[in-house]
Amino acid sequence: MDPTPSSSAASPFDMVSGALTDYIPRGKTTQATGSAGAQSDTPARPPADDRPEAGAAVPEAGGADRPEAGGQEQILAVVSLDRNLKITSCNLDAAPFAGVTAEPGTDFATLLPPGDVATVTQRLRNAVETREAHVARVQRLRRDDGTDLVVSMSILPSAARHGGLTVSLIAMARRLHLYASATAIGTSLDIGETAQSLAQSLLAWGDVAAVDLDFAVWTGEAVTEQTHERIRLRRAALVPDRPWPKGYLTCGDNLPREASRLLVGAVTRDDLPQAIVIPDREAIERVLGDPRLVRALVPGNLPATVACIPLVVEGPEGAPGPVVLGVTEVWRRPERPFRDSELFDLQELVAKTARHVDLARQHQREHAQVLALQRRLLPRAGSDTIEVASVYLPTTPDSAGVGGDWVNSFPLPGDRTALVVGDVVGHGLGAAATMGQLSMEARALLSAGLGPGEVLERLDETVTLLDDTDAGLAAGYSALGSTCCIAVYDPVDHRVVLSNAGHLPPVLVHPDGSARTIAAQPHPGLGAEFAVREPFDVQEFSAPPGSLLALYTDGLVEEQAASIDDGIDRLTELVRGVHPWDDLQATARRVVGELAPQGRLRDDVTLLLARMTGRRSRDTATWQLPAHEGTAARARSLASSLLRRWRTSDQARDRALLVISELVTNAVRFGSGPVTVRLVKAGDHLSCEVGDTGNGRPRLRRGDVLDDSGRGLHVIHKLTTRWGVRWTNTGKAVWAELDL
Fold first, then answer.
1. Cα of 475 vs its chain's centroid, Å
2. pLDDT tens digits for range 261-270
3. What pLDDT score does 399 carry?
4. Beta carbons of 53 and 46 less than 8 angstroms apart
5. How far apart (Å, rounded) are the C-alpha atoms in residues 405 and 415?
6. Lowest mean pLDDT among 133-137, 480-484, 634-638
7. I want to staple 209 with a disulfide (CB 3.0 to 4.6 A). Which of 164, 199, 289, 698 is the partner?
8. 322-360 core/surface letters (b: 16 or more CB in 10 A; e: else)
9. Do 607 and 390 meet the contact criterion of CB atoms below 8 Å apart?
10. In whole angstroms, what is the distance from residue 414 CA to residue 420 CA?
11. Which residues does residue 517 pair with via DSSP β-bridges, in sequence order?
């Protein structure tokens, strides 16, 4: 094997060496060839009296032993390959490549860890075929003892006739590696990915690297105190990826409490987090003190030394000091003791990563809060009169893509069901908070008996209040222009009342397969004070049993290359093909998958499908009676016959008749016009509703002993599970629910 490259001035070795001059300190030029006089990366071991004691803290950054103070070192090697990726010649004599053996005639893959063989081989074959260079990719090489060496690998097509390759390998110089690692770490807000990037970077200083993080980081909790008893660590990253002895902690494993306390206690000296070094296995076993902890924390049975560096961030205001988020451990052979300059570099890299870990923790907390809010607002299971299915897809799986769209469905008094869909402007926690407030307010108002149009009027006022200078615009977020659509389904009359505030029109599919969009008069949306104020349009339409109603947000039907009307037409065609026996949740997922495939979402996607089955006529009854003194007796007579047909018990029938009598009496006494009585039997529950044309609202109040009025509502309150008032187009309806 020829240890030196070609002497040609244009050789790849010389070209790459020349390109490295910017990274080498002036006055300390590295040799361009693999001469025997190249200085070793490992300096002479300092006298025993000058070395830090086992477990001693590292000197503060800024000391004399900086990387520039070390000896010169050659960091370049070259391997030449033929078209079959066989090694033809190489130069691996530089000190950092000690232990990496390459024999002419062997495959280049023998220099790689098993997990990297397929990827790197494909990259080499592409370079042979396309004659295109691949420059400066971080790669691992496998030493003879099984450990890894991190290098920067460039693949250069050879100018020779045989058309082979020249692979340049640059051992990652400390400052260059620190710069590359600091640039790569923190590109993701995922805690696991950040920890894995740190562990991969730490391999440049050792043979095994592990990152253990506090539970609070994973859950997003705020770490306000540094108590050893509180700290619990979980292994977030471990490299290299190889089979480990039984009992050794790998990714996802929780460290024993004793190990967590020992690690955090070891790196917290004099109440300040510091890096420590334990120089040999005997000292490590003495510190751990338990064979079980040794098996869990020490990688293998070979001699080892370890450097433990804490991940530290500044504590919150008022905290006594910095807070430890976790501990990193770098393991290597004891014959290569950690120098102060290396530990300074490790501290610098880990300190930069700690800030990214804390950002990921905060992101995790925000993401968990938004998702919890989103799940609380997802529709619950339908009833026996309506079947509901929904799909929600954020633009991205992080909190920046969650929060704008929302759907909800919930039961209303009188056996009705509310279906609500909205699209709040923006994404993130601000939009999620507004969405939650609007959703909860809509539910409360609908449950209180207001109609869809009246609810939208109040939501319009809420959005305006949220966006005044104190609450909204000063916080840098505006919800003006948010949209909402509310539908209320009555399973007895088989009708839907709907109102729309700037939202896309719902799609209604009739049992015969015909479909149409429920278009409303145009409205600019919620909080649009700058527009001409118009009342919200309220529509009422028939929805026979078997009808399907689709509510959605614009992310489902918007496409960059087509109009939104085309998207609505596609949605209409898809829901028209839904059969009555199709599983509704699977259908919703299929529709979303065809209209908005994952991977190209431009906005949050929400779809709500409601299949309306209605209430059977034999379980309902409605009577319209004139308002006079005998109306209560007539209502009791009609209801008594019906309750007997429903086979209710005598006690339940007596309670129901008393409630009906009191409701009708109040309607005749305080209302006007005809009285409408409606009874609905739903399983073991009875819903009674009495409507009139009056505007007065019955109120439960505490009366005096001698009062001769107001006792009827007390009777209703005692005999029913709940009762209330619902406003209608002609007046009001007082409803009550009883258990049969």
1. 24
2. 777 777 776 6
3. 43
4. no
5. 27
6. 133-137
7. 199
8. bbbbbbbbbbbebeebbbbbbbbbbbbbbbebbbbbbeb
9. yes
10. 18
11. 507
Confidence check: pLDDT of 569 > 70: yes
β-bridge partners, 547: 612
Higher pLDDT, 175 or 157: 157
Amino acid code (one letter) for 402: V
pLDDT of residue 70: 39
What is the DSSP secondary-structure string of 627-676?
Answer: -STTHHHHHHHHHHHHHHHTT--HHHHHHHHHHHHHHHHHHHHH--S-EE
Cβ atoms within 10 A of the Cβ of 61, count? 12
Closest CA to 467 of 442, 437, 443, 504: 437
* Sign of the torsion formed by the C-alpha atoms of 330, 331, 332 and 337: positive
With contact defined as beta carbons under 8 Å apart, do 111 and 131 qualify? no
Whether a cis peptide bond, with omega within 30° of 0, leads into 334 is no
Banded model confidence at residue 526, pLDDT cuts 50, 70, 90: confident
Which residue, among 236, 136, 126, 137, has the nearest Cα to 191 in the 3D structure?
236
Q: Phi and psi (nearest 5°) for 8? A: -60, 140
Phi first, then psi, for residue 181 (nearest 5°) are: -70, -45
Q: What is the pLDDT of residue 265?
A: 73
How many residues in total does the chain contain? 740
pLDDT confidence of residue 201: 81
CB 374 within 8 A of CB 233: no
Separation of alpha carbons 472 and 296, rounded Å: 52
Tell me if 164 sits within 8 A of 88, measured CB to CB.
yes
Nearest to 175 by CA among 253, 267, 69: 69
CB atoms within 10 A of CB 665: 17
Residues near 222 by beta carbon (within 8 Å), at least 6 away in sequence: 216, 316, 365
Joined tokens for residue 702: 């505490």
Q: Are 88 and 104 in contact (CB under 8 A)?
A: yes
Q: How far apart are CA 613 and CA 322, in angstroms?
A: 61
SS3 609: strand
Please report where in the chains the tokens 């830090």 appear, as a residue.
Answer: 52
Cβ-in-10-Å burial (0-12, 13-18, 19+) of 295 comes to middle
Closest by CA position to 211, among listed 356, 329, 353: 329
Output the six-digit token pair for 493: 């009359």
Asked if 3 and 91 touch (Cβ cutoff 8 Å), the reply is yes
Q: d(Cα 727, Cα 130) in Å, to the nearest integer? A: 75
Angle at 504 between CA 500 and CA 508, to 5 degrees: 85
Distance from chain centroid for Cα 683: 40
Residues 6+ apart with CB under 8 A from 665: 632, 712
Name the β-bridge partners of 412. Answer: 416
Contacts of 84 (CB under 8 A, 6+ apart): none
Q: How many CB atoms lie within 10 A of CB 227?
A: 8
CA 331, 336, 337, 343 torsion-angle sign? negative
Question: Would the pLDDT of 41 be above 60?
Answer: no
- Taking the C-alpha atoms of residue 35 and residue 4, their distance in angstroms, rounded to an integer, is 8
Q: With 90 as the cut, is the pLDDT of residue 284 above it?
A: no
The reported pLDDT for the residue numbered 64 is: 32
**Spatial CB neighbours of 682, under 8 Å, sequence gap ≥ 6:** 383, 384, 385, 415, 615, 619
* Whole-angstrom distance, CA of residue 96 vs CA of residue 101: 12
HSE of 682, CA atoms in CB hemisphere, 13 A: 20
**Are the CB atoms for 580 and 546 separated by under 8 Å?**
yes
Q: Of 505, 517, 496, which Cα lies nearest the Cα of 385?
A: 496
Report the 10 Å Cβ neighbour count for 180.
Answer: 18
- Residue 432: pLDDT band with limits 50, 70, 90: confident
Is the pLDDT reported for residue 113 higher than 90? Answer: no
